[in-house]
Amino acid sequence: MHLGNSMKLTYSQNWAVYNKAQAREKGLFMELLSELCKTVDEPCQEFGRPRLPMSDMMFCSAFKVYSTFSGRRFTTDMRIAKERNYITKVPHYNSIFNYLKDPRLTSILQQFIEASSLPLKAIETDFAVDSSGFTSSRYARWFSFKYGRDNVWKTWLKAHLMVGVRTNVVTSVEVTDGNSSDTPMFPDLVTRTARNFSVKEVSADKGYSSRRNYDTVKDIGGVAYIPFKSNATGKSRGSYTWMKMFHYFMCNREEFMAHYHKRSNVETVFHMIKSKFGTNLRSRNRTAQVNEILCKILCHNICVLIQEMSELGIGALK
To answer: What domain range includes position 113?
Structure first.
């Protein structure tokens, strides 16, 4: 389609497949989420009031985030899940809020996110890294002596993601405070993804530009496409990869940027997550906020998997 002297690129969409995936998404979402939750080891309890099954609470926590309903309105969905034997009992909606505060959920959710990406390991070889913030309902306050008044702003957390650029599936994630730096998160995201995927390329913006990050990708057999800052030099300082990629960047800028622009897919992922599951966090407790973000990302991965099951004909979770 032409707009003046410029041409806007458009991409075809198989609407029949897309519509089919969307029409059955909720039912398949519950089925796939239930399969994940069956892998949870139930903690031992020797005394006290019997706790709700951890698998049930993992299911309800993620399903509630998927529904975007309030706790009270989500009760009907929990009853439907119980009728389909996805959970053993219908918990009170306040129990979901209480369990989200449990720090044990954090590691389980991260495992779920990685597990939900595995069916796409044969498809994804190029990846992108970036971060984005999620605002909370809590406020921070400090007094400005210069202006003689209180300053108030909402606190927020930052999600650092590594995603496959073909399907937009999240392969690794880390959640930090909003003011944390992006660069130190890069090596861990890459290393965790490399455990499950064959990583050929990793693209990221110049905020991640460092010798360590270039070497991290080289060590796993991939190539990093991270633009160099204006004050960067080609001096290796112990990193031959840095020097090599710097000269490639300077001499083959157009080719380098063609690889780098795959990074836009990670921005698409954040848009998908926030537009579907919300950019604001309802939880007030810090641990619950982290778990809520992880639930959003898990829900995104399962939705991506459902779409790819229709488009590519792949199997379910393994």
So the answer is: 14-40+50-117+283-311
Compute mean pLDDT per 10 residues along the chain, 318 residues long, and list them: 54 74 89 94 71 91 96 95 95 93 95 96 96 81 65 80 96 93 95 97 94 95 94 82 92 94 95 95 93 97 92 60
Same domain, 137 and 259: yes
* Whether 181 and 260 share a structural domain: yes
Which residue shows structure tokens 């992922």? 269
Looking at the fold, whether 290 and 251 belong to one and the same domain comes out as no
Confidence (pLDDT) at 5: 54
Chain centroid to CA 75: 26
Please report which helix (H) or strand (E) contains residue 81, including its range. helix 75-83
Q: How far apart are CA 189 and CA 223, in angstroms?
A: 15
Residue 259 parent element (H or E): helix 253-260
261 domain-assigned = yes
Q: Is the dihedral of CA 112, 113, 116, 119 positive or negative?
A: negative
